[in-house]
Amino acid sequence: MNPFYRIFGGLLLVLIDIHLGQIEILADFIGYLMVLSALNGMDGNLKGMKGARTTALVISILAIPLAFIGQPTGTTMGVSISTDLVTIYHQFTTIVHLILAYFLFYVFMDWSRKEGKEELRKRTHKLFRFYLGAHILYFVLIPFSINIPENVTIPLFILGLGALLIMEIAFLVLIRTYHKEHQNIVPM
Amino acid sequence: MKGKTFIISLLIIAISWGGNLWFYHSKQLEEPIFLEHFYDGAGMFELYYLTNRDDPSHIVRVEFSDGTTLHAEADQYAFRNENPAYGPDVRSKSTHYLLKATRFDEQRMRELGVDHEGKATIHFNGGETIVADIGMVEAGELRKGNGLFTQQSSSSSSNGRSFRSYSVKEELDIESISSPFPEVDDGLKMKLYAPSIGSTGTPDGGGPRTYKKELDEDWSEVAGMPLAKIDFPIKMKSQDRIRLTMQEKKNNLRSYSYEIEVTGTTKNGVPFTQPFLVSNDPQFTPEQMELLIERRGRE
């Protein structure tokens, strides 16, 4: 399996959440481990690779408890985020996830540059800006939800989550393109 | 996005979390704040208190100043919601607080003869115990009907307006009106309407639509005369209507349920007492919750 395909599969696993009671099947940490193993199989001299490997390792360990503690109350209640430690921990891992995505974008851009695929590099750079911009804005605004009235936060939540989901899907589609490009270079 | 910009963005996220968590914690109450209650045994007894929004505990029992102990009605917790803000006892909520009400059995209160004033000891299900001034709580006695008054209608609105209306079955004179809690009446505007009282506004008897209108009308337009200005006796003929309209002043943050006593004599010379229930159902805006914390939070 080529590395891009494994990164794609890993991140898809992270995106899909299926809970059986407290236990999450298709646990996130398995997805992150897939990303980590894919990165280890790639050229270590790519820009951002060191950061990506480190972050993938950190989040693989960090995400293990997530599979067993269930979703934070903020998610099960639908809207209002609570301030308990589980929620904070959950939020923290999503930020580490963003850091991982940041480094992955760098790895991808450097890979496409080295392979001489300028179009793909440009496309990646464009999504990179949107992806990070949307996530940072969302993460800066989300803590305000504990201090402002529900009727304001609910529409914002829906809008924000919708935007983030679109970004995640766009990222996955992009990785699939990388997978195809990679297949064209190294026929299996 | 360069590494530096990204790190600054992460810092801003951290500051946003830190700042909001700090503000959230600065708004937390150390312990629930109880409303002042005025209860004389009429209507329902509910204990109102303001608590933190994520506080899942509820009252189990109350020790009154006369030594009696009363357990809360447990059935309202039969279907519990995981989120305290959607519990059955929540009357109002804001971003940081919940106004909760706990029900008690009035019959049991009468059996115990509860006579309370001032500080009570309140036990919560989490084991927490607090001492707080809850006002005046008396059990009272069940009244026997006099058969003279027929309830026509009663209604109340969230703007603090409520009324009760009766018709009388025979000719009688109302000689006085008295209240067990004159201090509550001070913060309450009351108007009494009867055909023989020179009155302003719409007369009673116009059907449901008039009642609804009466709840939203300007106070000066409400039928009747302020209680303090009435000349007794009030003469009433058979089938005459009498109506008491009440208007709670804004920001009177308290709970009450008691009876105003209307006394008089029938045409045949038989004395009677007719109770008029005066009660409110506190529901607070976020601003009123802040006001309550300011008034009763640091005692």
Secondary-structure arrangement, i.e. CATH architecture of the largest domain in chain B = Sandwich
The helix tally of chain B amounts to: 5
Shape of chain B: elongated
- What share of the residues of chain B does DSSP label as strand, in percent? 35-45%
Low-confidence stretches of chain A: 74-80
Distance between the termini of chain B: 54 Å
> Of all protein chain pairs, which has the greatest interface, and how many residues does each chain bring to it?
A-B, 27 and 23 residues
- Classified by CATH, the class of the largest domain in chain B is Mainly Beta
Low-pLDDT parts of chain B are 204-209
Structural class of chain A: mainly alpha
Report on this model:
The complex is a heterodimer of chains A (188) and B (299). Helices cover 73% and strands 3% of the residues of chain A. Chain A is mainly alpha-helical and 188 residues long. In chain A, helix 3 runs antiparallel to helix 6 and helix 6 runs antiparallel to helix 7. The longest helix of chain A has 36 residues. Chain A starts with a helix and ends with a helix. In chain B, strands 2, 4, 5, 8, 9, 12, 15, 17 and 18 form a 9-stranded mixed beta sheet that branches. In chain B, strand 8 and strand 9 form a beta hairpin. Chain B is elongated and about 95 Å long. Classes of the chains: A mainly alpha (188), B alpha+beta (299). At the A-B interface, helix 6 and helix 7 of A face helix 1 of B.
List the SSEs and their pairings.
The complex is a heterodimer of chains A (188) and B (299).
Chain A: H1 3-15, E1 18-20, E2 23-25, H2 28-40, H3 49-62, H4 66-69, H5 73-76, H6 85-114, H7 118-141, H8 150-185
Antiparallel strand pairs in A: 1-2
Helix pairs in contact in A: 1-2, 1-8, 2-3, 3-6, 6-7, 7-8
Chain B: H1 3-26, E1 33-34, E2 36-39, E3 45-52, E4 59-63, E5 69-71, E6 90-93, E7 97-104, H2 106-112, E8 115-124, E9 129-138, E10 149-156, E11 161-168, E12 172-178, H3 182-186, E13 188-193, H4 208-216, E14 225-226, E15 234-236, E16 241-248, E17 254-266, E18 271-279, H5 286-296
